[in-house]
Design a protein that fits this description.
The chain is α/β, with parallel strands linked by helices and about 375 residues long. The chain folds into 2 domains: about 120 residues, Aspartate Aminotransferase, domain 1; about 240 residues, Aspartate Aminotransferase, domain 2 (3-Layer(aba) Sandwich), CATH 3.40.640. The protein is built from 11 helices and 14 strands. It has a 7-stranded mixed beta sheet, sandwiched between helices. The longest helix has 19 residues. The chain is globular, with a radius of gyration of 21 Å. The relative contact order is 0.17. The model has no long low-confidence stretch (mean pLDDT about 95). The chain binds pyridoxal-5'-phosphate. Pyridoxal-5'-phosphate binds next to helix 4.
């Protein structure tokens, strides 16, 4: 059987990882400033992570949600403490799309409405409801278009307030920091007014923290520079450092009902062991503070580079906008300089999403290699 080809892939196959580095089968070492789509939060093959997973797989990797699971309780407790949302409730699932799917469903259960407000260039996943709220018609099949979604401009909130006044909007879904769209941060004043307007019109506010959550931006959640309490917060990616796990943090005012949501694999013993290990390491190694500090250093240095149009972001979620398409530069970085970086739906933007564990030596190596590559690109030799 051959693979169903849906991915455009690099020609390098990492077979081993440690910290901020991966190796291919020939033993060539690559600096990972991409973290496999922002997934690697605590670094590759962290010993504590490996240890907890190994112990759990040997003990009991899975039993269904038909029985109590103390590991789910432990994960929820720790997540509540570290994120500052101890009074929220946690529903566990397996991916970012599934987290958003369940958040949208919960919102609709809550107010009985169907219309969703989302934002231009936003990405919320590829499952049925989540993909309908994603601003990319190419990945939506006719079957996904089961409810109305209004896509509003990122910087033009007035149309959002107008729409909310109609009192028929089920939920607003917004990324804490827009990732795939090219690293855009909602203004704090916008988020705060959005929360108020949503409350006023009985609309639920969903913060998609799948990419921007878990310490990446220098706060546990991207939205935490503002003073809001979303109704629903979705997480995945960095939550399991590569082990598939996702979750919805649910405001205490939302009541559960048995059978309302569910998943066979969601919150499995093994997934929880991975999730607990990640939180242990984030806490013990002060990774949220590290992300804020190292992100600042990186962005300050990158802003000094000639030919860079804009550097934006928070913590270790960084977008570098150049005045030309970045594909050739990204390829050069990977194939000639052995550095993985990310792309974005804006062809001129490179995304940096390194593990939160990067150190200053690794930042220096990256800056050195990036500077050399950028020079080549500016000379027009890569385009
Ligand atoms: C903001 C955001 N939401 C949701 C998703 C979907 O996550 P998953 O691929 O785990 O379904 C992604 C994935 O890139 C994302 O960046």
């Amino acid at each position: 059987m051959k693979l169903f080809e849906v991915y455009s892939r690099y020609e390098i196959e990492p077979v081993k990882g440690s910290g901020s580095w991966v190796w291919d089968e020939k033993g060539t070492q690559y600096l990972d400033f991409y973290g496999g789509h922002a997934v690697i939060s605590i670094g590759h093959a962290h010993p504590h992570y490996v240890d907890l997973i190994q112990k759990q797989i040997a003990k009991l990797p899975f039993y269904s949600n038909a029985v109590p699971n103390a590991l789910q309780e432990e994960l929820a407790l720790k997540l509540g403490q570290l994120s500052g949302h101890e009074d929220y409730q946690l529903f566990l699932c397996n991916s970012g799309a599934e987290a958003n799917e369940n958040a949208l469903k919960l919102a609709s259960f809550q107010n009985g409405r169907k219309k969703i407000i989302a934002f231009k260039n936003g990405f919320h996943g590829r499952t049925s409801a989540a993909v309908n709220t994603t601003d990319n018609p190419k990945i939506q099949a006719p079957i996904n278009k089961g409810f109305e979604v209004e896509f509003h401009e990122w910087e033009e909130p007035e149309s959002v307030w107008e729409s909310l006044k109609q009192k028929d909007v089920c939920a607003v879904i917004i990324e804490g920091v827009q990732g795939i769209g090219g690293i855009h941060m909602p203004k704090n004043s916008f988020l705060e007014k959005l929360e108020k307007q949503c409350r006023k019109h009985d609309t639920l506010l969903i913060l998609d923290e799948v990419q921007s959550g878990y310490g990446r931006t220098g706060n546990f959640f991207g939205f935490q520079t503002s003073n809001i309490r979303p109704d629903l917060i979705t997480v995945a990616k960095g939550m399991g450092n590569g082990f598939p796990i996702g979750g919805v943090l649910i405001h205490p005012a939302i009541e559960s009902r048995l059978g309302m949501l569910g998943s066979t694999f969601g919150g499995s013993h093994l997934a929880c062991a991975a999730g607990i290990a990640v939180l242990d390491i984030i806490e013990e190694e002060n990774l949220i503070r590290q992300a804020a500090k190292n992100g600042k250093i990186l962005m300050e240095e990158l802003r000094k580079f000639k030919g860079v149009k804009e550097v934006r972001g928070r913590g270790l979620m960084i977008g570098i906008e150049l005045p030309f398409p970045t594909k050739a530069l990204r390829n050069y970085l990977l194939y000639e300089k052995e550095v993985f970086v990310g792309s974005s739906s804006n062809p001129n933007v490179i995304r940096l999403l390194p593990p939160l564990t990067i150190d200053t030596d690794e930042i220096d190596i990256f800056l050195y290699k990036f500077k050399k590559s950028l020079k080549q690109a500016r000379k027009g030799q890569l385009i």
